[in-house]
Design goal:
The protein contains 13 helices and 12 strands. The strands form 3 sheets. The protein has an 8-stranded parallel sheet with strand order 6-3-2-1-12-11-8-7. Helix 4 packs parallel to helix 5. It is α/β, with parallel strands linked by helices. The protein is globular. The chain has one domain: Alpha-Beta Barrel (TIM Barrel), CATH 3.20.20.
Length: 349
């Protein structure tokens, strides 16, 4: 059985019987974890193992674990600073900022891999324009080149730990104030500005083999009246044809308000897949997840499946092995202090 095009979530810290049945459906390809699914590293490792054991090839298991405000697992995991901290350091010492950003990517990925999680939806490639509160300190910097430098270092750290990266939110969420979780943001800037500035970090990371992208639930009316995640223009014309991106395209969560323009959840899933997404996320709405999984036509796309296969985690490591790694110890200490006080002058040893 190949991996299907739908990613769903779970209700709690253990796998329920009805969830097992849903995850065996051929339209399901992955599971996204949230804070409600986490009690401890040992518990979440057991949960991931049970999910992976359900099918072959195993379902993808992922989490939003960027650092700062968006870090789903806390106890037993390194406290990671928000991306903006690296950007502020970059203005004073670009080399050290890149070094610490790479360390953050490696620590984040190594710790998640030690409990079996395949990947995190990271890094954020949006520009910090001082407009978007939902992005805010999740962005590395306001300068596209700085974002590309720091995100590239972060991705390199993830790659060394055996984790594929997902750049988000294409083509850029930093130019709108509205939060797409709660509203339908509209970015009225001219298309050349977005392509020259906001898209630059994506273009740079594509050249380095970025594995996946998540488009924004944002409408850019000078390009298309549909949000980017439902737009053939953005996903096929720009992302695939002009930029030559060959990796996986995830939708953002179809339960967000920014996706509501496409109809009910099944309509949203169909529209996102038709526009060019390879996998769609349906989160926090169990009844909608069932509607999408059962309502989509069964199909096998070998190209999409190959892209999904790249997202499986590599370099398996146990928590004990990781905790004996001197590099992990020194990196997490530096990052922990940086998260507590970004003004500290820190060096990795």
């Amino acid at each position: 059985m190949s991996l299907g095009p739908v990613m769903v979530d779970l209700r709690g810290t253990a796998l329920m019987d009805d969830e097992r049945e849903l995850l065996r459906h051929p339209n399901v390809g992955g599971v996204i974890l949230f804070t409600r699914n986490f009690e401890s590293p040992a518990q979440v490792a057991a949960l991931v193992q049970r999910v992976h054991a359900l099918r072959e090839p195993r379902l993808l298991v992922c989490v939003d674990h960027e650092g700062g405000r968006v870090q789903r697992f806390r106890d037993g995991f390194t406290r990671l600073p928000p991306a903006r901290v690296f950007g502020r350091l970059y203005d004073h010492d670009a080399r050290r900022a890149r070094l610490l950003a790479e360390a953050a990517g490696w620590v984040m990925a190594s710790e998640l891999r030690s409990v079996g999680v395949d990947f995190s939806f990271a890094p954020v490639l949006d520009l910090d324009r001082g407009i978007s509160t939902v992005i805010g300190d999740r962005a590395f910097h306001g300068d596209p080149q700085a974002v590309a430098d720091l995100a590239g270092a972060f991705v390199q750290g993830m790659r060394k730990a055996g984790m594929a990266a997902t750049g988000k939110h294409f083509p850029g969420h930093g130019g709108v104030a509205a939060d797409s979780h709660e509203a339908i943001p509209v970015d009225r800037r001219e298309l050349p500005v977005i392509l020259d500035e906001d898209v630059l970090p994506f273009r740079r990371l594509f050249a380095d083999g970025l594995a996946a992208v998540m488009p924004a639930h944002v409408i850019y009316p000078h390009a298309d009246e549909r949000p980017a995640g439902f737009s053939p223009f953005w996903l096929q014309e720009v992302l695939r044809r002009r930029l030559g991106f060959q990796g996986l395209i995830f939708s953002d969560d179809l339960s967000m308000e920014g996706a509501s323009v496409a109809g009910d959840h099944l309509d949203r899933a169909r529209a996102a897949l038709a526009a060019g997404c390879d996998m769609v996320l349906v989160c926090n709405r169990p009844e909608a997840a069932i509607q999408v999984v059962e309502g989509l036509r069964l199909a096998s796309d070998p190209v999409a499946h190959a892209r999904m296969a790249r997202m499986h985690g590599r370099h398996g490591i146990t928590p004990d092995e990781l905790h004996r790694d001197h590099h992990w110890y020194t990196a997490r200490e530096a990052l922990g202090r940086l998260a507590e006080d970004p003004s500290l002058d820190l060096h990795l040893v």
